[in-house]
Amino acid sequence: MNVKLIRFFDRTFLSAFCFIAGISRIFPKKLKTNRILVIKLWALGDSIVSLSMIRGLRKNLPKAEIDVLCHERNKAPFMDNKDINKIIEFRVSSIFKLFRKYDLCIDTEPYLNVSALISLWCARYRAGFSHGIRSLLYSSRTEFSKKQHMVQNYLDMIRKLGFNYDADKLVKLETTKAEKAAVEKFLKKNKLSKNDFIVGITPGVAESVKTRMWPLERMAELADKISGKHNAKIIIIDSPANKGEAEKMASKMKTKPIFCIGDLSIREVFNLVERCRIYICNDTGPMHIAAAQGVKTIGLFGPNTPVLWGPYGEKNISIYHPPWCSPCIDNAKGKMPKCFNKVYQQCMKNISVDEVMKAFEKLKNAK
Fold first, then answer.
1. Residue range 65-116, pLDDT digits in tens
2. Does residue 11 surpass a pLDDT of 70?
């Protein structure tokens, strides 16, 4: 999947369709909530963050049908979630069958035009963010605030509709007995027990913005310090796409880590992460997995701000020392530029090993 090409097509061509449809749309009828569709087409971590809003819908509307439209690649967080009736995978054929099927569609995407057009097709009443031409298609519009976490931005969408709900932590990701058994087998194979002090680390990031990655030599130095001082077992957990980064980090370590790179499915990884005592991660999906599973989490930030995307929960820590150019990512507009600072990746290089180690010690000693 070429992410840049998809975003270019969406921004260049589909914005015109949004404008035409928006100025010619029929004004919505009164809000009904028997059948609700939530659209979340992008990103694993973002999908996890959106679950609090879905939980808020379910608490307020216990008898409503709540379905989710997503891609296959971000489907895992929605599976086995008791707040959701059905998951619909994004395909042209499936979209055609949804014409005016829903009373309400909540489009959680902050900038995609295609999701706004789908909401118009699927529902009589539509809710989305208030910026951009695409907002013309919505019946209810909510401000995308850069001064609060995305959990709260999503909750604002249902508050605007009259549903009161708040959350101080993420919704836990459920896994099956078979998935838990697969993790037990993995732990046994790697000679890990419940008594081991397991620390999870994800050195890589998703393909959209590679500059979010903390220098691998620093991650390796940190892992060695943690392993040496606390007799911790280090598990490097990452996607097969980041196998090179994981191996490079391990090659710089004095101690030998355990690898989980494609050994388990993403949903099995949910359970593996839950077995960790502390998790250290760049600003990417596994950070939100750890926070959702109640694991003490350290998030390392640079191109984006932890105000929006930090590991949600009171026991978690975000480390962020922005230079003049950060945050350079604009989530509301879908802008994810390459680093243009004279000192390449200065935002991530501003984070030292010592301060991450201090954050680790703080979490370790926290009750």
1. 999 999 999 999 999 999 999 999 999 899 999 999 999 999 999 999 999 9
2. no
Mean pLDDT of the chain: 93
Q: What are phi and psi of 146, to 5 degrees?
A: -90, 5
The sign of the dihedral angle between the CA atoms of 95, 163, 83, 332 is: positive
Partners of 69 in beta bridges = 39, 88
Tell me the fold of 3-159. Answer: Rossmann fold (3.40.50)
Those residues whose C-beta lies under 8 Å from the C-beta of residue 64, and which sit 6 or more positions away, are 33, 34, 35, 36, 57, 58
Select from 3.40.50.2000, 1.10.238.10, 3.40.640.10, 2.40.50.140 the CATH code of 177-365.
3.40.50.2000
Mean pLDDT, residues 181-187: 98
The amino acid at residue 79 is: M
Q: Sign of the CA dihedral 352, 355, 361, 364?
A: negative
**C-alpha to C-alpha distance for 204 and 282, rounded to whole angstroms:** 7
Q: What is the pLDDT of residue 207?
A: 86
Q: How far apart are CA 232 and CA 226, in angstroms?
A: 6
Please, which residues bridge with residue 91 across strands? none
Is the model's pTM score more than 0.90? yes
Q: Quick one: how far is CA 50 from the chain centroid? A: 8
Q: Distance (Å, rounded) from C-alpha 2 to C-alpha 7?
A: 9
Strands of 198-291 (E only): list them. 198-202, 233-238, 258-261, 278-282
Preceding amide of 286 cis, omega within 30: no
Q: How far apart are CA 138 and CA 125, in angstroms?
A: 7
Q: What is the token pair recorded at 121?
A: 């097709």
User: What is each CA distance from 7 to 10, 43, 80, 292, 333, in whole angstroms?
Assistant: 5, 13, 30, 28, 11
143/153 Cα distance (integer angstroms)? 8
Cα distance between residue 360 and residue 281, in whole Å: 12
Comparing 22 with 365, the larger pLDDT belongs to 365
Q: Per DSSP, what are the bridge partners of residue 127?
A: 106, 140
Which pair of tokens denotes residue 184?
Answer: 């037990």
